[in-house]
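Write out the bound-state structure for adenosine monophosphate.
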Amino acid sequence: MIRLALMGAPASGKGTQAYHIVQKYGIPHISTGDILRAEIAKESEVGKEVQAVIASGALVSDDLMIKIIENRLIEPDCKKGFILDGFPRTIVQAEKLAQLVTLDKVIYINTPDEVILSRITAREICPDCGVSYNKTLLPSIEKGICDHCHVPLIQRPDDTREAGIARLKTFHAQSSPLVDYYAEKGKLAEVDGTFDVEVVKEKIDKVLDM
Ligand code: AMP
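---
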């Protein structure tokens, strides 16, 4: 049983690294961004509520996110552990999460803003499985097609340079205080996200094997 959370700015590689961790431990990958995008695709009430907020680069309300995560963590597959990707993003969310479960480790992928911005605009995602590619650094085998689902890749509407800058501002203002929060609790493992996917993966493996 291992309960993990991955933290990092947008496009710092959280989703890609979560994918490797899922392969390694067989635990569910809980990406709040993927959950919200699925609600938008379904045109549900929640989807309609969050669409404009996500496009602007701001955060969805803590109340809604906590409700979503509470419902997800009681699913039977979470009994063997999980990896959270994109949650918590605020201190309020972290405090609520601590009332629900005890995390074993929080991995913070620390990546400079200029690297983030160049990655955001080159990113493509699979609308079905949510896996991310990078047109130059991590391309799909067949151009524009998901390696796993074989459906056409899309660009996220919030992966423009303008929205990217807004999302980085949001990250620094609201999410980066979590670095100190988890460091003080002795849970934080910081990994340099500037390197290639494989190198970051090895660094995370080392942290998890400790
Ligand atoms: P992500 O795919 O993790 O980059 O998330 C995409 C967008 O969904 C974010 O920019 C936020 O608007 C929203 N979102 C995802 N997770 C959260 C969260 N834990 N708290 C608030 N908003 C979130």
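---
Residues 10, 32-33, 36, 53-54, 59-60, 65, 86-87, 89, 93, 158, 167 surround adenosine monophosphate (CB under 6 Å).
The mean pLDDT is 95.
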